[in-house]
Amino acid sequence: MTLWMVNDVPARMVYAGRRWRVTDIPTRIRHSIWSVPLENPHPLFGWRFQGTDDAGDSLVFDVYASVDGWHVHHTYS
What we know:
The chain has no helices and seven strands. By secondary structure, it is mainly β.
């Protein structure tokens, strides 16, 4: 997954071979709602936002940052 930010806020991404545009106002997610594996010493943070692909399909994404980049934690249709 690749995530592009504008002014430190998600704007677009590539996930599962598709391009997604952020089509709502992203909500910042703090580490308190994530289930953090014990081996991860870094608090997690991320975003929840709606993404829309080129075909017009939309999903809500929960994404989080870790030491090796951004990851999709969950999607909602």
